[in-house]
Amino acid sequence: MKLNELTLTKTIKMLKSKQISHSELYSAVTQKIDKVNNSLNVYVALDNEAVLKTKNTLDLPLAGVPIAVKDNFLTVGLPTTASSKVLSGFHSPYESTVTKKIRDSGGVIIGKTNMDAWAHGSSTESSDFGPTKNPRNPEHLPGGSSGGSAAAIAANMAIGAIGSETAGSIRQPASWCGVVGMKPTYGRVSRAGVIAMASSTDSPGPIGKTVIDCAVLLNHIAGKDCYDATTSSLAVSDYTAYLSKGVKGMKVGICYVDHPKVKGTPAALAVLDAGKVFERLGATVDLISASDTLMANRILNPNYAIGVYTVVQRAEVSSNLARYDGIRIGRGRDFLATEAKRRIILGTFTLSQSFVEKYYVRAQKVRSLIIQNFHNLFGTYDILIAPTSAGYAQRLGSSADNPLFGEIEDMLLEASSIAGLTGINVPCMRDPKTNLFLGLDIMADQWQEEKILQAAYAYEQATEWNEWVANESE
Amino acid sequence: MKASSFAASDVQKIATLAHIPLTDDEAKALASGFRKVLQVVDELNDIDVSNIEPTHQVTGLENVFREDVIDTTRMFTQEQALKNAKRIVDGFIVVDQILEK
Predict the structure, then answer these.
(1) Which domain holds residue B20?
(2) B99 in a domain, yes or no?
(3) What CA–CA distances, in Å, run from B79 to A324, B82, B84, B96?
(4) Closest-CA distance of chain A to residue B100, Å
(5) Is B30 close to A327, i.e. CB distance below 8 A?
(6) Can you tell me the ipTM of this complex?
């Protein structure tokens, strides 16, 4: 096996026991990058001297492993553009909290990954620097907006990666690329130094080859940060400590499989199968019907989440992107591409005096109902499972001229995001004809990261979909 | 202005407020997109939200304070603060005139 194909956990172990050296590891990773980055367009910036930064890292927990970081995290020494031409050539004078924590733990930022410009999308096709292609099948999209980070993992062009999710932007590309991606609870990981998209839902998180890799990365990025007042001072667990506890006695609810766009699809069937896996492992599994006449469950209808998310996200975007005036940083607003213009203008409209009650305030009220409904569900269930995406990765070009492409693709994720919950994608099916993957989304209540990692790990160990787990257990 | 009859001229008006330059063709395309998007959003009208408080943040945190001290390690030099600005004269950032003489 080539060294770039190792998991983060195994890489750290082999580096620390001196079975492999940094120079061997970095040469394998950069060889892979040199070979495929031109065609896949995964990295928008690379640190060609990354291997030199591994010096004195061996005693630190991340031991000098190469980490790919989404291009909306501010990094000193590497440009940050959020894949928008407005920020071409921008060099941040300060570092994001997440990347500082990675570096302080001994991780090395090997490069910045492509994304939908400003994170506005679920395809990575709206990047101003061209689309990223799905390494599993380059005729298809990687998903997004953290498409570059998910693709970097899928193509073994990094050992670990960092993305950010506002409503699906970690879990959906992880699903389409057949990797593990975790959205922590809103407020678990600092947003300081992350280019803001929707401030009330933005959640940085890990993307990795296995569940344990994501747990390790989360250990190093989670926690209270005095530069982000919305971070929680709740103690950070050792997220790897719970992994092997299993799901025996857990109550699992299956969501969304009877939605008209999901019912009977391979995604629905794969999730029902996953339900059987959890049952076999000792959990109690129920089907939660969206057609239930009780209001409490009807609110799970993804159409409402799409409506709430669309209004809230555009409103927050219009406010957050107002700072890009071309004066202190970046270029003028004439460099904004269509999608950003579309979102800023719609957000400005829904916040305007005559429409704010009708759109923005109503959406925030429905948001309260969605949160209340999750609260009720988590009174009964430990975790909820659902398809991450209703289908396999779409073909290149699919997002063109569709003002709601992202919202439709993320329709099964938006409710959990606007409620600030935590969720993780694990691969749950591979189509041998196309080599494309489906993903299982495991969600839990706020601050229950341990629970979803525990369930995801149990599922990963009990099934054969994760090639890295299979390879390393050989 | 009615949301259902969103016209290119309405889009232009909002774009001006948001300081976004738009061509007429762009405004036309955006207007038709907005009509579709607002149709989806209008489904929220099915839901009874009387007596429901809006949620603006989900952390449950209130009144977050920090020590009122200056962290000199995070202060920029003038050079750092100005290095990403496109137009600088004598350590100042140049901006367009917005007031008539």
Answers:
(1) 3-45
(2) no
(3) 20, 5, 9, 22
(4) 20
(5) no
(6) 0.93
